[in-house]
Amino acid sequence: MPSRLLHLLPPERAHNAALRLLGFSPLRLRPPALPVRAAGIDAINPVGLAAGFDRHGEAVRGALGLGFGFVEIGGVTPRPQPGNPQPRLFRLAADRAIVNRMGFYSHGADAVARRLERYRHRGGRGVVGVSLAKNRTSESAADDYASVALSVAGLADFVTVNVSSPNTPGLRALQTEGELRRIVERVRAAVPSDMALWVKLCPDLDKAARAALGGALTTMPVDGVVVSNTTVSRPAGLRSPEREEQGGLSGRPLKALALEALRDIAAASQGKIDLIGVGGIENAEDARERLAAGASLVQFHTAMIYGGSLLPYRIVRSLTRSMETARQTSPVVPAGTRPDDGTAVPAFSSVAHR
């Protein structure tokens, strides 16, 4: 995608243009295979597209064609809603970051389900997940999450309970053991047993809250925990004037906080649940750092604004080369095997499936 030209457009117009281009993209990049079984999914590599880029499921084929091992669309609300007033997306170019206060702008579950059904009907393959969201005026978050999950059951490979967006009033208050357990159990009961269920946390929880949730989540019917969403904090040193805008910050400035949150959740969960590292990942070294910190999978999308659409391919290729080098110098025992073809699963894959 012509990212330099897109930067001449206002951020949300640029995002929509990039999404349309990706929807028609003929690219079908095939990075070296790095299969992994983790968090209830079997992916061709551990690098995924994070939720928030393709909110409505309009470019699934194009996104997978960039080399991602899996993609997550959404957040998706039960009923369509327009989100917050514009402007609501801000480019912090000097900091390689963005601030968004989209507020769950969604076409609604029925529209997204129809798109996924067309994609699958036309032979669309690959691992696809849906980030579950609630309508702003809803009185029951659990009912909303379960409703969306049921709409995409049989079409998506996993769903993610997003209780961590800073742009919907009261949403982050659901990050307590009691509220989260009620939501997770409601969603789990609504979908097939073979659909993976993830939970997405925010990076702004303090250490005590991370410790409590990290332990509690291991007792819930959850396959993976995504760490983390955007932050409402503003790390020191931000240079862009847009840093003052309200909303969630993502990109390079989130890196240290997201890594710290991942390490805390990993310590609290003691390897009993698979983690997905997100936040500030820009290159293969960042991905390796999250995997070493306890993640089984990684996700990103802000980095493509500044690194281009070939970034996922480059990251997967670099990860594969480093794995091959490690195996040549110090052979490892595979963590497991894929049930369909016997391919060895890399050693950084699922701790919960060993």
Q: Brief overview, please?
A:
By secondary structure, this protein is an alpha/beta fold.
Describe this structure in words.
With 354 residues, the protein is of the alpha/beta class. It has a single domain, classed as Aldolase class I (TIM Barrel). The chain contains 11 helices and 15 strands. An 8-stranded parallel β-barrel has the order 3-4-7-8-9-10-12-13, surrounded by 5 helices. It starts with a helix and ends in a 9-residue tail after the last strand.
Question: How are the secondary structure elements laid out?
Answer:
Blueprint: H1 3-6, H2 11-23, E1 36-38, E2 41-43, E3 47-49, H3 60-64, E4 70-76, E5 89-92, E6 97-100, H4 109-121, E7 127-132, H5 141-152, E8 158-162, H6 177-190, E9 196-201, H7 207-217, E10 224-227, E11 248-251, H8 255-269, E12 274-278, H9 284-292, E13 295-300, H10 302-307, H11 311-329, E14 336-337, E15 344-345
Parallel strand pairs: 3-4, 3-13, 4-7, 7-8, 8-9, 9-10, 10-12, 12-13
Antiparallel strand pairs: 1-2, 5-6, 6-11, 14-15
Helix pairs in contact: 4-5, 5-6, 7-8, 9-11
